[in-house]
């Protein structure tokens, strides 16, 4: 089976620039793209995460997002680690 093609870093930068220039909600849409590309989250997981999944009650950003079993493929809870600088900046 052939491996799926992936975006090159230049293509990702271009995608983020075009999104920032043309989107009605550039911050949100850029964050959605970054969570998918850098954290490996699926579209349905991104759409269903909640504020308390990403932030502590104090308002501080979590280092990892615990995805509930109800929103993941296969209905198994999993953790996603936020390590990419651009994704962390977009969440801030």
UniProtKB/TrEMBL annotation:
Gene3D superfamilies: Intergrase catalytic core (1.10.443.10)
Domain Tyr recombinase: from-to ranges: 2-92
InterPro entries noted in UniProt: DNA_brk_join_enz, Integrase-like_cat_sf, Integrase_catalytic
Entry keyword annotation includes Coiled coil: no
Key word Metal-binding present: no
Keywords noted in UniProt: DNA recombination
Protein name: Tyr recombinase domain-containing protein
């Amino acid at each position: 089976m052939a491996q799926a093609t992936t975006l090159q870093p230049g293509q990702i930068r271009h995608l983020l620039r075009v999104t920032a220039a043309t989107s009605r909600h550039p911050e949100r849409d850029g964050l959605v793209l970054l969570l998918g590309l850098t954290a490996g989250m699926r579209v349905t997981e991104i759409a269903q995460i909640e504020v308390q999944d990403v932030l502590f009650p104090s308002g501080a950003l979590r280092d990892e997002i615990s995805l509930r079993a109800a929103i993941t493929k296969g209905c198994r809870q999993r953790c996603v680690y936020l390590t990419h600088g651009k994704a962390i900046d977009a969440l801030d």
